[in-house]
Amino acid sequence: MAKFILMTCDGREEFAQYVKDRIPKVLVSYDTFTDPGKFKNTSYRNAQQAWKMAGDDSCVQLEDDILLCDDFVKKCINAINERPNDVIQFFSMRKKDLTEGSRYENGSNFLMHQCYYLPKGMAKKIYEYSIEFEEQCKQDEHISPNDLVTRFYFQKKKIKKEEHVPSLVDHRVAKSSIDPRRSSKRQSLTFKK
Fold it and tell me: 156 - beta bridge partners?
């Protein structure tokens, strides 16, 4: 079975507990980093840690600012069992979700780390790629390029992803801990509790 890995940080204890109460075996990647390296915060370090925690196993990567649908684990596992070798994104805000439903899209348009599945070995490869990516970045080029690294890896490897509709998670209406200037209104068009 895929590992469920939750990224969280100080000030998000209530959000993290909500997820832990609903996914009892979730592993937690806690941001205790002090050195952001080339970036403006330590979220990237936490994303790297979460990818590394997966090792060679398949995994569902989660951010803490989510709401889960009813029977989330069961629905998630059912979707994974249908496509265990494919990347699956369980959160989307795209208008196509309403008109086309579940579909495959180029990984080059990957966005939003709220909840996504990676097949066996892929998290480890993204982690390794993230080190190369960081070495190539200029100082302070990005606030925290978690989504970009995933997108660039998929693009480089020509990986497609399935947009799962309806979204199994929704983005909370909350201030971003990565960049408080981001809109708090970034919700799925298809999420149903």
Answer: none
